[in-house]
Amino acid sequence: MTERGALRVRLDQLAREVAKFGAVGALGTLVNFSVSNLLWHTTDLQAVRANVIATVVAIAFNYAGYRYFTYKDRDKSSRTKELTLFLMFSAVGVVIENGVLYAAIYGFDWDSPLQRNIFKFVGIGIATCFRFWSYRSWVFKALPARETVARAESFLEGGSTASTGSTASAAVTAADRKRPAGRGTR
Length: 186
Prior knowledge:
Elements: H1 3-42, H2 47-70, H3 79-108, H4 113-139, H5 146-159, H6 174-178
Helix pairs in contact: 1-2, 1-4, 2-3, 3-4
């Protein structure tokens, strides 16, 4: 495959990943807005506290969607580590999202129902960018490309020997050398 073709494949894979992440995120956002507005209108909880609860409910919903839809083909070898990282990065997202809402309400006194929802939306947008990067980089790790695994297995089976001048590093293609560590194709 040419370098341009490999780039096209990677961009297509990234586009599919973004679309799946967005679909799960859109449903999670609907859950988040529904729970927060329900709590804002039916309880005496402070706005940011109610929003934190709504965000946590959405995070639980999103984990299921990301694990079993968006990143279903990713490494599943260490669920405890995956869940720990997911919760850690999600907590940072909670701080980002609710920090924006807190600043709007308590810093600028923008506390009408419309203003709350606008700044909740802004906070979700900023937090979503962080979550996408962190989840794909650290939580739902990509498995190695099938071609790379096949080359490594054939090398280990004796398909390549040092006497012919071939080494393990010679089996790595130019595209593999340019791939960041920990990234693979699906």
